[in-house]
Amino acid sequence: MSGTTREIVDWLNLQLEVERIKDNALNGLQVEGKPDVRRVVTGVSANRALIQAAIDQKADLLVVHHGLFWSSPVAIAGPLRQRLKLLLEHDLSLAAYHLPLDLHPTLGNNSGLCKLLGLVDVVPFGIYKGQRIGFRGRLPQPAPLTAVVDRIRQGLQRDPTLLPGHQRPVSTVAVCSGGAADMVDQAIAESCDLYLSGELTEYSPAMAIEGAIDVVVAGHHATERFGVQSLATAIAQQFDVSVEFVDVPNPF
Description:
Layout: E1 3-4, H1 5-15, E2 28-31, E3 36-37, E4 39-45, H2 48-56, E5 61-66, H3 78-89, E6 93-96, H4 99-103, H5 109-117, E7 120-128, E8 131-143, H6 145-156, E9 161-163, E10 170-176, H7 184-189, E11 194-197, H8 204-210, E12 214-217, H9 220-223, H10 226-238, E13 242-245
Parallel strand pairs: 4-5, 4-13, 5-6, 10-11, 11-12
Antiparallel strand pairs: 1-3, 2-6, 7-8, 8-10, 9-12
Helix pairs in contact: 2-3
């Protein structure tokens, strides 16, 4: 079926269970543009480059993982003002889904990482704000660490950073995309062989060594492309609109 901005956003809110999930971000519609939607663009972060790309493609709705508004009030100034100005001048709607898109069992970023690694027996992992936002599973057969890192490199098309903690064959893996390097302690507590996330912290190397766990850090942006790519497919299947994922390169 064809859709309006409100119909598409309401459908996304329902699929991603926005009302159920605690978050520090505003999930759902953030900026309202024109009511009718013929073209949708999805992307990771609502920066100026992505907004301009959506405008260039004559999109009516932009759906992202990282939106413009979080929990604290902010002044509409500087880069935020410029981004809003672009959206409003071009009547472009913006919807964002943060944690709901990280933890969704089929559409989410962490689900995508599990599929990339071919994990089986997947269960929720990683408590944040009282809810599990990542996943833990196992490889069908134990694999050398180098082979697992190569699979991540090929799947994400970037060189990940490896923090070796034991370098034995990998069987059990925990994943949590984006800025979740501090969940390595939970992966250690659950006796995982490897933890995959997006960002490093200063204490991550010591945690890997002391916890005898291998840690792979593959980039915040790179580990969070899966969700908006999945949403592009889902929107196209549900609504009679043109949908395209646009990737603005980001090394971090």
